[in-house]
Amino acid sequence: xxxxxxxxxxxxxxxxxxxxxxxxxxxxxxxxxxxxxxxxxxxxxxxxxxxxxxxxxxxxxxxxxxxxxxxxxxxxxxxxxxxxxxxxxxxxxxxxxxxxxxxxxxxxxxxxxxxxxxxxxxxxxxxxxxxxxxxxxxxxxxxxxxxxxxxxxxxxxxxxxxxxxxxxxxxxxxxxxxxxxxxxxxxxxxxxxxxxxxxx
Amino acid sequence: xxxxxxxxxxxxxxxxxxxxxxxxxxxxxxxxxxxxxxxxxxxxxxxxxxxxxxxxxxxxxxxxxxxxxxxxxxxxxxxxxxxxxxxxxxxxxxxxxxxxxxxxxxxxxxxxxxxxxxxxxxxxxxxxxxxxxxxxxxxxxxxxxxxxxxxxxxxxxxxxxxxxxxxxxxxxxxxxxxxxxxxxxxxxxxxxxxxxxxxxxxxxxxxxxxxxxxxxxxxxxxxxxxxxxxxxxxxxxxxxxxxxxxxxxxxxxxxxxxxxxxxxxxxxxxxxxxxxxxxxxxxxxxxxxxxxxxxxxx
Lengths: 200, 298
Hints:
The complex is a heterodimer of chains A (200) and B (298).
Chain A: E1 4-8, H1 13-17, E2 24-33, H2 36-47, E3 60-62, E4 67-71, E5 74-79, H3 89-99, E6 103-106, H4 112-121, E7 124-128, H5 133-139, E8 140-147, H6 149-152, E9 158-173, H7 180-198
Helix pairs in contact in A: 2-3, 3-4
Chain B: H1 3-23, H2 27-39, H3 43-62, E1 72-80, H4 89-103, E2 129-135, E3 140-147, H5 149-152, E4 156-160, H6 167-180, E5 188-195, H7 198-211, H8 221-236, E6 250-257, E7 265-272, E8 277-283, E9 289-291
Parallel strand pairs in B: 1-2, 5-6
Antiparallel strand pairs in B: 1-3, 3-8, 4-7, 5-7, 8-9
Helix pairs in contact in B: 1-4, 2-3
């Protein structure tokens, strides 16, 4: 039975261990953005033993390349819907293990290694509605900080956002390692074979 | 009209065309999404379809980009043989993209594949992309499309075996949609191109997915029937909105074809996410311009 949760970062292990696939979460507090280049950058720093400019522990990492602009010396977030998470599958398990993030937010689902890391370290993967960029931006109350902007550019930089009731987020990988999409895609594959078998 | 005045009018027209496409969903797409929402019984898929509708209405109301991936800019052009600025059109369109990127604003998406540098203004080598057709008359008719990266990634091309005929189409389409799963932001619009040449098949699939209004069938009855059957089959897969299951995986399927070579059967599948951003308009040689496509107002 799917439930609705309102959670605040930093998330505790207990917060995320209660979540199950299909649950809806509205998140408040601090989240940070990272896509391909930022995942690489953060892991490189950690692996070299260098400090990060912020503490990711208990936070949510959001797969997004936002549209932002500077207005009267303040950053304004124009559009910030999720990007395709599957691109981060090769590194996300290591990212969860080494940063201590408790939630990964994106779209389109993630694979086995991420699910294993969610189970082992106590984290979940949740989906924000793909393309719903204005809805996401409405829930971002403030840009707290931005890192490596010159080096990575606007979409790839790491943005620290303060969010209020950010969602709906649907949990599709929970901390038991269950992946909501596995069954749907397995059935779709079977159905496609059935349809093709019926063709002359 | 002075050429310099027409130049300014043309740029103004193109900037507005880009703005409308990026911020206001076409009415046919919005209506199809609304129908998907109303008929959906899977509660999670329905929740996300509701978020999609709310997001689209908000974007139109606030004049903000529907999706943060503001896409790769593509211009489909019907160029009147007598339109005065034929050779200059490309430069003016590039300027319009640069201006729209600052004004709306758009996310800079043009990245050098070898040196990794982002140009910062959505123009670059072969960006924007143009498909130009010369037509009689002195008008310029343009459809601007913002093509998102997430829905472009599952693009599929298969050089099928002629002996297997239309089976090549069924297999390529269903396998591509299952493989894509939730990644291209379903409900998607599917374009299918069948042709002699590989690039031709993809170009036709793209046109079919991006340009033909949703709900409109191919004028040839047997091709129209194939479209209906492919749409039913895709929606039977149960992938649903964002892969959460449910009734609507595709909003529509459009098939386009060229006569093939005896030895080839090229099948291409192009998908667009639910955020199908296109806008159409024309400008006359006297500088009068108008956006003719219908969009939601929020």
